[in-house]
Sequence to fold (189 residues):
Amino acid sequence: MSLISEILNYNEQFVAKEEYKEFLTTKFPDKKMVVLTCMDARLVELLPKAMNLHNGDAKIIKNAGAIVSHPFGSIMRSIIVAVYELDADEVFVIGHYDCGMTGLNSDKVIASAKKRGISDDVITTLGHSGIDLSSWLTGFDHAREGIEKSVNIIRNHPLLPKNLPVHGLIIDPQTGRLDLIEDGYKDAE
Fold:
């Protein structure tokens, strides 16, 4: 059985048994917070549990490394929508130790893409189009560096209020321990 068939079969039973009812809530986060975190599979259940978050408590945005790579990209758009349309009053940027973005090597990623069928012509065309794959596919030396950079971009964004607390934390993906890197209350005016 394929993975999609397995998921759809399970989902049919989930809906038929009305198991969704325990998750019913509104689109507004009860704890008035938005969380930007990494897509790491170890954090799917661990991070909410470690933060005492339940369904409906927070808007959670995930990407590789919890990185805001562009001040006007989709991550920032999601944060801005959460603040202005969904009543989020605080932002939490949460990276983790042992992140796959630590020391990410763009040449290695590009080589893997080529092995899976992406042609040299595509790579060359992207380069001629002004897309710098080397910097776009580069991570950071330490999770702290990525968190500080993302917090700084959010905190100084021209479309966000200066009194918006933007916190930076790193979670241990083994124990769930949270280390505070940036206290957003200290920098909010």
User: Anything to note?
Assistant: Residues 3-16 form the longest helix (14 residues).
